[in-house]
């Protein structure tokens, strides 16, 4: 598959705006584990090979286990994730697939059991951000490195 345009080169201000969101996200209290789970799971759903490679590599460097990474697409069928992580993953799926049914009351109420409003806002912004990056990478056919 051949890459298309490089938005980073053509529209650097657009990338700078996206990096601004990333800078904000780095200042939040969302754990690296939650961020990794969000980035990997959304990238799987969006079929973004570039982002899957990047974020699984980063997650391993931050101490995430291979077992959990491999099981992430089937997280509901495993005992590997905490109740809080399950809520994060459910929210990630519903925001990523927002056109299906929006974010359900059940998932939102479950999130409220574990997270305050600010944390939920930060989680949603993390999900929105990776979905934006996924769409850029998929639309421009940004290829993962061959390692």
Automatic annotation (TrEMBL):
Organism ancestry: Bacteria, Pseudomonadati, Bacteroidota, Cytophagia, Cytophagales
Classification via NCBIfam families: ahpD_dom (TIGR00778)
Keywords: Oxidoreductase, Peroxidase
Gene3D superfamilies found in the cross-reference section: AhpD-like
Protein name (Swiss-Prot/TrEMBL): Alkylhydroperoxidase AhpD family core domain protein
PANTHER family: 4-CARBOXYMUCONOLACTONE DECARBOXYLASE FAMILY PROTEIN (AFU_ORTHOLOGUE AFUA_6G11590), CYTOPLASMIC PROTEIN
Source species, domain of life: Bacteria
Example GO molecular function: peroxiredoxin activity
Domain Carboxymuconolactone decarboxylase-like, chain residue ranges per copy: 14-94
Pfam entry (one): CMD
């Amino acid at each position: 598959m051949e890459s298309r345009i490089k938005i980073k080169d053509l529209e650097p201000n657009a990338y700078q705006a996206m990096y601004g969101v990333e800078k904000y996200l780095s200042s939040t209290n969302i754990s690296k584990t939650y961020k990794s789970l969000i980035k990997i799971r959304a990238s799987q759903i969006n079929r973004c090979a570039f982002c899957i490679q990047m974020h699984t590599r980063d997650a391993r460097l931050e101490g995430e286990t291979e077992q959990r990474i491999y099981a992430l697409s089937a997280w509901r069928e495993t005992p590997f994730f905490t109740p809080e992580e399950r809520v994060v993953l459910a929210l990630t799926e519903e925001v990523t697939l927002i056109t299906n049914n929006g974010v359900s009351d059940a998932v939102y109420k479950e999130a409220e059991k574990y997270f305050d409003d600010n944390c939920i806002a930060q989680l949603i912004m993390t999900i929105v951000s990776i979905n934006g990056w996924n769409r850029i990478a998929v639309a421009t056919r940004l290829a993962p490195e061959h390692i």
